[in-house]
Amino acid sequence: MLNGKTAVVTGGTRGIGKAIAYKLAGNGANIAVIATRETDAAKKVIDEFASMGVKARLYTCDIKNADEVASTSEEILADFGQVDILINNAGITRDNILPSLSTMDIDDVIDVNLKGTMFVTKSFIRQFVRHRSGSIINISSVVGLMGNKGQTNYSASKAGIVGFTKSVAREYGKKNIRCNAVAPGYIATDMTDKLSDEQKDMVKSQIPLGTIGSPENVADLVLFLASDSSAYITGEVIKVDGGMYV
Predict the structure, then answer these.
(1) What string of H, E and C letters represents the secondary structure of 69-136?
(2) Residues in contact with 10: Cβ distance below 8 Å, sequence separation at least 6, in sequence order
(3) Which is it for strands 177-184 and 237-240: parallel, antiparallel or unpaired?
(4) Would you say residue 17 has pLDDT above 80?
(5) Average pLDDT, stretch 86-105?
(6) 154 is an active site residue
(7) Is 185 labelled a binding residue?
(8) In terms of CATH, what superfamily is 6-239?
(9) Could you tell me the CA-to-CA distances from 157 to 108, 113, 162, 178, 244 in Å, in that order?
(10) SS3 call for 7
């Protein structure tokens, strides 16, 4: 579905981001992964992508630093020539009730999740405009739509991504650039693995489909939004939550 195209995936070495990058590579896309650090595990993941017959490279960048993002985007464009798909996936949590959140807890989450998404999109938008094509997919969260206690900072950052997505869709639609958001619910990642069996059962009881989702469930939707199969879809926020927030 994506032969000859190049995708940039932030946070693409683990969890949902890895599943997305793997799915795109499996469908022929060259992959540029942006990660915070170059670890042995991250390099192994890149080798996995390259073994699928596509070009794959790892770039280290602090996405909350606008200057680093700008220089990294230039490096990616020099290496790959053109970027067709941008997946803003990188994100962090600093959960606590509002009075217990430190200023750093608030700043870090907003800086990485929201400002990082904005900085990375800004760094590639001009080349999308030059080529009059592109698909931008921002990973939000169902809690950005419904809220969640103990996650005011995270919910605010993910709600901000929704507004940003819709604004980019309106601003660049006439340039044939699409921008959509995916809002996962409870997905089996390192974060949910820390939940006790009792907590997992409580979560499942809130989900009509009765199960916690997999990263591949999210990746399947991202593949659709990245491909020409979704050519007439932009400005949408699509939940992958098993019906948790109907």
Answers:
(1) HHHHHHHHHHHHCCCCEEEECCCCCCCECHHHCCHHHHHHHHHHHHHHHHHHHHHHHHHHHHHCCEEE
(2) 17, 33, 34, 35, 63, 87, 88, 89, 90, 116, 120
(3) parallel
(4) yes
(5) 97
(6) yes
(7) no
(8) NAD(P)-binding Rossmann-like Domain (3.40.50.720)
(9) 10, 6, 9, 21, 20
(10) strand
Nearest-CA neighbor of 97 among 107, 89, 106? 106
Give residue 3's identity as a one-letter amino acid code: N
CA angle 86, 87, 91 (to 5 degrees): 140
Q: Is 89 annotated as a binding residue?
A: yes
Q: Which one has a higher pLDDT value, 84 or 199? A: 84
Q: Is 231 annotated as a binding residue?
A: no
- Domain segments of the chain as ranges: 6-239
102 annotated ligand binder: no
First to last CA, the chain: 30
DSSP 213: B
Length of the chain: 246
Paired with 181 in beta bridges are: 138, 237
Q: At a CB cut-off of 8 Å and minimum separation 6, what does 66 contact? A: 119
Residues forming beta bridges with residue 139, ordered by sequence position = 182
- Which amino acid belongs to residue 46? I
What is residue 196's predicted lDDT score, i.e. its pLDDT?
86
Q: What angle do CA 46, 49, 50 make, to 5 degrees?
A: 85
Catalytic residue among 154, 172, 186, 232: 154
pLDDT at position 63 is 98
